[in-house]
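Researcher: Good morning. I'm working through a list of sequences from a screen, and I'd like to move beyond sequence-only analysis. For each chain I'm collecting a predicted structure so we can compare shapes side by side. This is the next one on the list. No need for commentary yet; just the structure.
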Amino acid sequence: MTATFELPPGLEAGAPPADRAGVRLLVARPEGIEHARFPALGTFLSPGDLLVVNTSGTLAAAVDGTRQDGRAVTVHFATALDDGTWVVEIRPARGAAGPVPDSRAGDVITLPDDVRVTLAQPHPGGQIRLWQAAAGLEGGVLAYLERHGQPIRYAYVSRPVPLADYQTVFARQPGSAEMPSAGRPFTADIVTDLVTRGIGIVPITLHTGVSSQDAGEPPQPERYAVPPATARAVNMTRAAGGRVVAVGTTATRALESAAEGTGVVHGRSGWTDLVLGPGRPAQVVSGLITGWHAPGASHLDLLAAVAGPELVGRAYREAVGARYLWHEFGDSCLLLP
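Model: Good morning. Structure tokens for this chain:
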């Protein structure tokens, strides 16, 4: 594991900050580490650098329901598949530390409006955390989630939070089960400051699944799109000697998937199962804005694929010592290897 650490009690952000831009920013470079606030982001970048942001919007992807044995559960709608079925995660309704342990093919969960979700098969096979499921819904799942869903909320967030607090300023296309949270601290004022400094901003879209993987479990395939204009801007920035700074692991995964290991990005859309890590370093992304990931998370290997294990390890040790806050409502890190 890239960054081996223990997360001390009290470092999990349990609610959105009053000012989304007011979070702390740790800047890690080979020459040292600095501490700032997120609105100072532009002072650590240079004219000609390019930020790549994710335009995926967060779904109200959690719906309470009842199993056929009467137990209350929550269905997490994770990913829409091409055939109209969904990848779902079934969790106990309260205090869940993981999925329902005894799900099986053929289970039926009843949701509001007497909607039935039927589990078909594990997705992928060999595990019980994620299932391919069918839900016959007039008007589609997205419209149903707008009526009955809530944002996915883990135990460290003690109270419900409005869906608006799970959206980033860049969100345009609903599709993510969980917020692409690296973009959350951005505001219109910060975007304006970056642009006036000569720092470019271009979009990709990657719809995230659920992030509650077991320790060491790789991320699941995700749907993404890199527009041709974004691909051109990235290639031109690299040719001119500028840095390509991905806002989040999602933007990193999309760009590297669209480059296919060549270092040249192409306009592309589809599904990516790319896993960045020791055997597959980043070849396009040269900087990364990210939140703080839990011990054992597969995202840590992606960070090291961009910034190297030594710099990532130093950043995490410093963040623990300085009591930065973790998870989607926590503080931020800028890795500039």
